[in-house]
Design goal:
Pfam families: Amidase_3 (PF01520)
GO molecular function: N-acetylmuramoyl-L-alanine amidase activity
Protein name: N-acetylmuramoyl-L-alanine amidase
CATH architecture: 3-Layer(aba) Sandwich
CATH topology: Aminopeptidase
Distance between the termini: 23 Å
CATH class: Alpha Beta
Number of helices: 6
InterPro entries: MurNAc-LAA_cat, N-acetylmuramoyl_amidase_3
Keywords: Hydrolase
Structural class: alpha/beta
Radius of gyration: 15 Å
Amino acid sequence: MFKAYYYVYSGTVIMSRTSDITKDMDTRVAEANNSNIDFIVTIHCNSSTNTSARGYQVFYPSTHDVSISTALATKINSRLAFTSIPKFGSPTTHDGIGLLLYTKSPAVLVETAFMSNSQDLALLKSPTEQSNIANNIYIGIRQWWWGN
């Protein structure tokens, strides 16, 4: 869904995966570092043993491109407030994700909602909310990129 928004309105999207078949982190990092990319936005769904945990959260690296990545994370975070999913926390650093740590580009990780929470999961399954999430991530990127 996000790829459709970004591709139609702005440019090229390189997907690290388009199915449930995973790639190891070394492969993803190498693909990102060997591509001519301006920035990385990795989009995920969160999970927790605490089934009451819910909401979106955006992370950025603390080791490189911190100010640029922080600005991108902040814009995306502010746009996700326009979805039906509550905010779980403010943008913060996360040093346990390879795509944030080992890539050469500004990067953010968007955790859209908790699959382990029944309310969040219902929203994630909704085509309307999927579109809303994708559109607001796109708008956040656009506002960050163009400075408005």
